[in-house]
């Protein structure tokens, strides 16, 4: 699993400063505007709560040990990896499986303006089209609207759906 070295120690320092009972559980518009947008436009204020993970080099069950923010959900930044150098399709394959989109993308608005989109994906073990569906779910947040030109990174939220019900 590839994790940027400079960010490894930041998470535990941030969590240690939170009073008991506080949880990192931002709304969709907060993830897009207060984290993703500031990360992509290289704002002076960049919260160190989220680390960067290369999704193609790790399996979903490895995420809890790496992205330690959140109890049942794990948040992190990831670089979009194109399937083909000149194409628009995103590569979502790992060594043991792949992430498959499910449903339609949801618009994220703030103050009546479109700022981002949320895509839901499910992890399948094996190779398409014969992969076996698992209980691992991902929400991928990306910038949209006037901010789309500043979007090399996305925010990923992964959770194991059996924990939520």
UniProtKB/TrEMBL annotation:
Keywords of this protein's UniProt record, alphabetized? DNA-binding, Nucleus, Transcription, Transcription regulation
PANTHER family reported for this sequence? NAC (NO APICAL MERISTEM) DOMAIN TRANSCRIPTIONAL REGULATOR SUPERFAMILY PROTEIN, PROTEIN CUP-SHAPED COTYLEDON 2-RELATED
Q: Is ATP-binding included in the keywords of this UniProt record?
A: no
Annotated PROSITE patterns = NAC
The family database entries (InterPro entries) matched by this protein are listed as: NAC-dom, NAC_dom_sf
Q: Give the superkingdom in one word.
A: Eukaryota
Residue ranges of every copy of the NAC domain listed in the record: 18-161
One of the record's GO molecular function terms: DNA binding
What the entry lists under Pfam families is as follows: NAM (PF02365)
Q: What is this protein called?
A: NAC domain-containing protein
Keyword Transcription regulation included in the entry's annotation: yes
